[in-house]
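in:
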């Protein structure tokens, strides 16, 4: 029950204290990562939002932007099991999930024993996921959505927290298998990594050529992350935020009545209901990490591009005009906010 001391209805005093502790922990986590990762502050923020919202992220960036280093150091800071899966055209589903192998017991009998694959970790980096064939890509679906895998008719649960970060190389497209819409929809965020600034690039050269990287301090444990994920779910959301998120997503659908006229020739397929859920969860998580006790319109605005960009399929006309999904989302957000204010 909330008391008079609570800064917002719907949160008890214990929740308020926990949110303050989460914000302080988030600051410590960013400071630790900054000892190794130079720049990419916005990328780190979005990964943190996604982690505490219990989602998965798709990382997009050219090689050499420290994607693997960032994810491995994140796992180091939060004391979680980390595994990296390099997706290749010959990768099989069992290479991800694991398989039964025949072993001889001490008394001479032979029995099948399950050997878990690399998906049995807390943080899984699926590197260049679009290089594997669809059958192998699909092996990640159940794990990402249900937090379990099924092998030879047996179901195995994945220990929480379970966080998948998949990377795609936007440059080399030959020999790749684009992710189907059903799998893209499983990713809460699309996080795009940009080139460092000139000063950051000089700092990267200095830090990476002068010795071994520092060992980072442990800031969080697995059980603490699970507790914070449950706390984020309890962050209050005003009715007008729910309505804004739903209106924004409905406007992305070219065949819907809410879609603006300018969007219809540019988008062939819009976002589904899962986008509304992720907009709200992302807003809750961002509010909690930034010190707010309630989701705000600015939180939805901040996560909208990451949630919606990979869920919009643009038409040939849009591509011919050089208009990408990010530009469409940015315009939609501005127009929807203006409508809300009016």
């Amino acid at each position: 029950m909330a008391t008079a001391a609570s800064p917002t209805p719907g949160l008890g005093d214990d929740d308020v204290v926990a949110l303050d502790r989460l914000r302080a922990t988030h600051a410590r986590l960013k400071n630790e990562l900054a000892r190794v990762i130079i720049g990419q502050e916005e990328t780190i923020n979005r990964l943190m939002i996604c982690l505490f919202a219990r989602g998965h992220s798709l990382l997009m960036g050219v090689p050499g932007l420290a994607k693997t280093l960032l994810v491995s150091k994140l796992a180091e800071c939060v004391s979680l099991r980390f595994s990296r899966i390099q997706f290749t055209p010959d990768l099989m589903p069992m290479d991800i999930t694991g398989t039964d192998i025949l072993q001889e017991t001490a008394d001479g009998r032979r029995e099948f024993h399950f050997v878990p694959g690399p998906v049995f970790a807390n943080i899984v980096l699926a590197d260049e996921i679009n290089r594997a064939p669809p059958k192998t890509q699909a092996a990640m679906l159940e794990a990402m959505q249900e937090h379990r895998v099924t092998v030879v008719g047996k179901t195995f649960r994945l220990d929480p927290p379970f966080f998948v970060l998949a990377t795609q190389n936007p440059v080399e497209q030959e020999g790749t298998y684009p992710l189907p819409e059903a799998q893209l929809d499983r990713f809460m965020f699309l996080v795009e990594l940009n080139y460092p600034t000139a000063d950051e690039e000089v700092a990267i050269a200095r830090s990476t050529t002068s010795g071994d990287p520092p060992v980072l301090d442990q800031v969080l444990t697995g059980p603490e992350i699970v507790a914070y994920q449950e706390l984020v779910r309890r962050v209050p959301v005003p009715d007008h935020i729910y309505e804004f998120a739903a209106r924004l997503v409905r406007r992305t659908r070219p065949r819907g009545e809410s879609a603006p006229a300018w969007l219809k020739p540019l988008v062939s397929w819009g976002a589904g209901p899962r986008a509304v859920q992720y907009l709200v969860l992302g807003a809750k998580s961002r509010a909690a990490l930034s010190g707010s006790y309630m989701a705000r319109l600015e939180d939805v605005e901040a996560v909208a591009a990451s949630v919606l960009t990979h869920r919009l399929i643009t038409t040939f006309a849009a591509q011919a005009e050089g208009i990408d999904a990010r530009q469409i989302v940015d315009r939609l957000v501005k127009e929807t906010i203006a409508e809300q204010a009016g």
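note: The CA atoms of residues 110 and 289 lie 52 Å apart.
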